[in-house]
Each structure stands twice: as structure tokens, then as C-alpha cells.
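Worked example 3 (structure in, sequence out).
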């Protein structure tokens, strides 16, 4: 580069800086609204005027609503908003600094203690179906608890409707299709060890409830079902599609196939999805939707009984579906390998991981948040971020500090998000019995509150 070209570039940079300096505060705030938080913080470090500008409460109010959603921000009590600036609120929500466990009351009747059951928040009601209990017995009951409109801290009241249920099972999957009001259940294991390949639906809409005292389960005629399996993972992908990955087949071998059930077709059909790469065979893992046709897989127990903590992204948006391993780019602290944990979507489109068990089947009760949007930020970089950028950056993994009435260390429990993702409800699971060195099937109900 010639000296003339270098001089021209320096002049252009100086002119660009001058243009920024002459912009009014309102104009700069409009620009800042579209920047990532790390960029806003870096901009504020350039001069005193810009530092004052990025400290604007109106700017951080906009960031909170952009990052976490209108409904989540509106859920904050006014008393909390008066005591905190929006910048403080953003930091508190980013780091989940007010997380607390609450033990909830369950007046009789209540479900038996169980594990490997399904627990779903469907249209303002919590559904629990099936699971395994003491003596290796499989359950085939459906329990429903209406969610109070104000608070859950006073407990919930379970109902056991007299409805048609699928055959008793555990290790099945059940997902809620919120746009059509359907529960879809697939597979599972009987108390004799036989795996199922049947698909059941439950219409939870108001119209269905009006036609009967409670909505029943109905066997769904489908074509070309996956192999019978249990301990697989499943989630709703949007567009009336349900995705299943892995599990254990009848001969005990673990699977690594991906299947999609398309309910928009008549009759509904399962089809296997071929991808160039995929996670290894496993069971006891989780699959969580983060966007339409995008979902995140975490953990599980592999084909050689090893326990895993890898993270994969399944993308069905393109004509060629892909599995991409995300954890290869992560250098930060991550959860230890586990299976039988729960994964619940919370505000900010993040995934909350709770509990599970390690290779020795030792139970856990730690709480982690996985932020898929932080993958790029978590990748190794040649430049070191400033302290301020670290403080307001989004980490791929974050271990939460939790207070309150802790549940026991547990695995294969049920969990579901509530409302806007401001809380997670946890029921049941297997816990260690120190008196007999055995396993107890728990019936405790706990609320993990993320926003005070």
C-alpha cells in the first residue's frame, strides 16, 4: 500500500469518527438498539459521552424486551422494577441471579412416585402420564393439574380423570403441539421389557374438552413407524412435525436414527431423516426445540454405557437436514456427562438442564443453562474481550447458583416450563435411598423460580 493510499484511509477514518460524534443522542440510541450487547458495551468504552449514552435506562429497557421478550419482562413485579435500573435487570436476567427452589404442596389424591414418565404443560394444565414405579411396575395413568393464574407456591391439585389411556409404559416420549392443541406420545417400555412403536394423540383443545369430561388418548394410525424403542428423545419441531432420535430397541442395542412424524399429511406418516453426520447411538438424552425446525440434543448414555455431555444442533430448515456438533467449539466450563436429566426451554430461548445421573448412576441436582445463541461468542478468538464484554456476554454454558428448598438428587424425573419460561416445574424421578443403598421412586413436586 502506497503512502498516499494510507493517508486517504486515515482521513476517511477520522471523518467517520467525526460523523459519529455529530450525531444526536436520539439518533445514536436508534443505532444502538440494533447492536449486540457486547457491541454496545464496547461502544460505551470509547469516550465519556458514549459511556453516559449506553447507560441510558430507556436503552436497556429496549434491550431487555428484545433479548427476553415482552411477556417475560412484563412478568417482573413493579416493586422489583422500581428498585432496579433496566441495566441491573438485564444482568440479573442474563445470569439468572434470583433463582430459587420451592417445595410445593400436593393435597390428596396425588400421583404415585415414579420415574421415566412424561410431564407436559399443555394449554394451562400439567399432564403426567405413565412411568415406572416400585417393583419395576409400569404405569398407565394420566394425571392433570390446572395451573393457577396467580401463583403456584400454594401448591397444585391433581385430578385423575376416567379416560382411555395407552397401555402402561415408561421411557416413552410425549410432546405438546401448541398450535393445534395436541399431545403426541410415542414408544416406551412395558413392565416386561417389551418396547412399543405405537403413536397416540390426546386433543387438549377447549372443543375436545367440551365434548367429554376430559380428553382421552386415541391410537393414531400411521404409516412406516420407527423401530420399537424406549428411553429415546423427542420434541416438537413446529409445522406439525414431531422429531425422535435414538433410544433402546428390543434387543437392548442403542439407536442413532432420526425420525420425523408429519401430522400435516393424511394419513400421518413417519419418515427416517438421512444426514451426513449424526450424534452417536444413545439413550436417556434430551432434545429441545429452540426454533421452528431447529432443536438441541444434550447428553445421554452411549452404546458402550459411557455417559455423554456433547451438544448437537439438528436443523431441518434446509432441503438437506444436518446434525452439527456445537460442543466442539466450547472451551468454557460445561456440565459433567449425564443421562436421565431434564431439559426445559426458558426465557431468552435458553435451555435449563437439571439433574440426571453419571456413569455410576450417582444422582445429581445441579442446574445449568445452555444458550445456543452464544455459540459464536464462545468459539475461541484471537482477541481477548474486555472485562465489561465478559460481564455482559452470553455464555454457552452457565452453572446457576440456586437457593431455597432443594429437591433430592434425582434422575429420570419429569419437568416442564411454565408461562413465558420464567419457572420450571419438576415432579418425581429416582432418588438414592441412603438407608438401604437402593432406589426410591419420588413423588415430590418442586418449582424452580427464575424470576422473583
Amino acid at each position: 500500500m502506497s503512502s498516499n493510499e494510507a493517508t486517504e484511509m486515515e482521513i476517511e477514518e477520522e471523518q467517520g469518527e467525526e460523523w459519529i460524534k455529530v450525531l444526536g443522542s436520539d439518533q445514536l440510541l436508534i443505532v444502538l438498539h440494533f447492536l449486540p450487547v457486547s457491541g454496545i458495551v464496547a461502544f460505551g468504552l470509547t469516550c465519556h459521552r458514549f459511556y453516559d449514552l449506553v447507560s441510558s435506562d430507556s436503552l436497556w429497557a429496549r434491550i431487555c424486551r428484545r433479548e427476553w421478550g415482552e411477556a417475560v419482562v412484563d412478568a417482573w413485579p413493579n416493586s422489583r422494577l422500581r428498585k432496579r435500573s433496566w441495566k441491573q435487570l438485564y444482568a440479573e436476567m442474563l445470569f439468572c441471579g434470583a433463582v430459587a427452589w420451592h417445595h410445593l404442596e400436593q393435597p390428596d389424591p396425588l400421583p404415585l412416585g415414579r420415574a421415566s414418565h412424561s410431564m407436559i404443560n399443555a394449554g394451562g394444565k400439567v399432564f403426567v402420564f405413565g412411568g415406572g414405579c416400585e417393583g419395576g411396575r409400569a404405569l398407565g395413568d394420566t394425571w392433570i393439574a390446572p395451573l393457577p393464574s396467580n401463583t403456584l407456591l400454594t401448591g397444585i391439585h391433581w385430578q385423575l380423570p376416567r379416560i382411555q389411556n395407552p397401555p402402561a409404559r415408561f421411557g416413552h416420549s410425549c410432546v405438546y403441539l401448541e398450535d393445534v392443541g395436541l399431545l403426541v406420545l410415542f414408544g416406551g417400555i412395558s413392565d416386561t421389557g417389551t418396547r412399543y412403536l405405537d403413536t397416540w394423540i390426546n386433543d387438549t383443545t377447549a372443543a375436545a374438552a367440551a365434548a367429554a369430561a376430559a380428553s382421552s388418548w386415541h391410537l393414531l394410525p400411521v404409516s412406516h413407524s420407527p423401530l420399537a424403542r424406549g428411553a429415546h428423545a423427542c420434541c416438537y419441531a413446529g409445522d406439525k412435525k414431531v422429531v425422535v432420535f435414538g433410544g433402546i430397541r428390543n434387543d437392548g442395542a442403542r439407536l442413532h436414527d432420526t425420525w420425523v412424524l408429519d401430522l400435516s399429511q393424511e394419513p400421518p406418516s413417519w419418515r427416517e431423516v438421512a444426514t451426513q453426520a449424526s450424534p452417536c447411538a444413545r439413550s436417556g438424552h434430551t432434545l429441545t426445540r429452540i426454533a421452528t425446525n431447529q432443536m438441541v440434543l444434550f447428553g445421554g448414555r452411549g452404546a458402550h454405557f459411557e455417559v455423554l455431555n456433547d451438544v448437537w444442533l439438528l436443523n431441518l430448515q434446509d432441503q438437506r437436514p444436518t446434525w452439527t456438533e456445537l460442543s466442539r467449539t466450547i472451551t468454557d466450563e460445561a456440565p459433567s456427562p449425564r443421562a436421565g436429566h431434564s431439559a426445559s426451554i426458558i426465557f431468552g430461548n435458553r435451555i435449563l438442564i437439571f439433574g440426571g445421573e453419571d456413569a455410576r448412576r450417582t444422582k445429581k441436582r445441579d442446574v445449568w443453562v445452555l444458550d445456543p445463541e452464544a455459540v459464536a461468542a464462545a468459539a475461541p478468538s484471537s482477541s481477548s474481550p474486555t472485562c465489561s464484554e465478559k460481564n455482559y456476554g452470553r455464555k454457552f454454558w452457565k452453572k446457576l447458583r440456586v437457593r431455597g428448598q432443594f429437591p433430592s438428587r434425582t434422575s429420570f424425573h419429569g419437568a416442564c416450563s411454565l408461562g413465558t419460561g420464567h419457572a420450571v416445574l419438576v415432579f418425581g424421578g429416582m432418588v438414592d435411598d441412603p438407608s438401604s443403598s437402593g432406589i426410591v421412586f419420588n413423588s415430590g413436586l418442586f418449582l424452580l423460580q427464575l424470576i422473583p
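Notes: Residues 357 and 363 are 4 Å apart (CA to CA). The chain is about 20% helix and 30% strand.
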